[in-house]
Amino acid sequence: MPSLDGGHYFLTVLAPINNSGVVERNGAKSSPVHMVREALETLPTALQSPATEAIGLNSPFARNTRTHLARFVVLDDVNFNGRNPVDSIVSAALKTDLLTPQPVDHLPSPYLIFVADFDPDASGAAEPRAYLEALWDIMTAELNAVFCYCYGWDKVTDRASFADFIIAREVETTLPFNDYWVGPPQLPSLPLWSLAAAPGLGIVAAVGFGLASHTPWYCAVGLGVLLFVAGLVFDYGLILSWGRKPFPAAPNSTLPHVLKALYLQHAFTRFVIDHQGDDPATLKAGFRTFLAANRPADLAGPTQAAGVIK
User: Most exposed among 23, 71, 260, 290, judged by the fewest C-beta atoms under 10 Å?
Assistant: First the structure.
C-alpha cells in the first residue's frame, strides 16, 4: 500500500540525530537530543480549549490549509522484547543456560520521527515535494529549530534542499489510517474473466498448436502446462499491481471540507437547542436564517479555523 492512499498523503520520516558532544543554543548547553526535545516542547500545539484559543498561539502547521495531522516523536532506542522464545523442554535437555545474555538490538543514534497527513495536489505526482516546499515557506524557523541537530541538516539552505532532506529520510507508510469514508467506497473491481483469460488462452494455444503441427500428445500437454503456469504467473503480477493502486478518496475529505463540516456540526447543534418547541413556521424561518448565516456550501467561511479543536 503506497504512502499516497485514500486521497491523502501519509508522510513518515525517520531522521537520525547527531547526538555527539555538548552543544550550546540561546545560552544553554546540553546534548543535541535534549535540545531537540526542548524545541518540541516549546513548539506551539493546536488550540484545544477556549483558554488556549484566547492565547492565540497556534501550531505553525495550522498556517498550511492542507495539513490534517502532524506529529514529532524522539526515539532514543528500540524496546527490548526479552529473550528469543524457545522450547523449555528442549532447553532443559540441552542444558541451555538461560542466564547467558543474547544479542540485543540498539539504534546507532536517536531518531527524530516526523509524521504528517496532508491533502496532495490534484494528481499527487508532485508529492511530497510540493507540500514540503510550501511547509518550508511558512515555518522555516520552527523547522530549523527542530531538525538542526539531525545528520545532513547543514546542507539545508532553502525550500528545495529541505524537501531533498526529508524525502531522503522518508519511509513508506504501509498502513495509513483514514476515517473519512462514511459508507462503502466504490472500489474498481478486477473482473474474473481477466484472471481466467491468460491460463485459458495458454491451454487453447497449446491445443491449437498440437492440432496444427501434429505433434505427439505429450508434447502438446507439456506445452499446455507450461503456458498455463505462465498464465498463472501473469495473473499473480496483475493482482499485485492492482493491489498497489491507491484507495479512492472520500468525497469532500480535504481539510477545508473537514473544517467546514466541524463548524456546521457545532452551529447546527446550537440551532437545534435554540429552536426546541418552535412551531413549523418559526422553525422554517429560523432555518432559512441559519442557512444564510452559515452558508454550508461556502468553504471559505464561516468555518472552523485550522488548528482549533472544539
Answer: 71
- The pTM of the full predicted model, rounded to 2 decimals, is 0.78
Looking from the CA of 267 toward its CB, the CA atoms found within 13 Å total 20
Separation of alpha carbons 143 and 63, rounded Å: 13
Closest CA to 190 of 226, 237, 123, 124: 237
Residue in the block written with cell 491523502: 8
Please state at what angle helix 140-147 crosses helix 32-41, rounded to 10 degrees: 150
Tens-place pLDDT, residues 211-258:
566 666 566 666 666 766 776 777 777 777 777 777 778 888 899 999
Alpha carbons 275 and 203: distance in angstroms, whole number: 72
DSSP secondary structure, 131-173, as one string: HHHHHHHH-HHHHHHHHTTBTTGGG--SHHHHHHHHHHTEE--
Q: Give the 3-state secondary structure of residue 239.
A: helix
Residues 271 and 286 sit within 8 Å (Cβ to Cβ):
yes
